[in-house]
Design brief:
alpha+beta, 4 strands, 60s Ribosomal Protein L30, Chain: A
Amino acid sequence: MRNINDALVEAGAKMEDTVRVRYILPDRTDFQKTWPVLQRWLGDVRPAAIMMQAGLMEEVMKIEIEVTARKSEGRVDDINASSG
């Protein structure tokens, strides 16, 4: 989540600008374990979301998260960020 936040900030956005999240996990039953961390980072943001089960690039990877954000302040640029 730090990587995603840093990418958003670099693009002139913030976590509150997140409009969509895609979670990819090798084992979908692990999703509940991530929920406290996700809630801490997203706060009151309620983006559209999907969780998919799929193999990741390396065995040690447990989750891949991709977000799409829309810049606030009247800008219409979309920003995509991801972190594994």
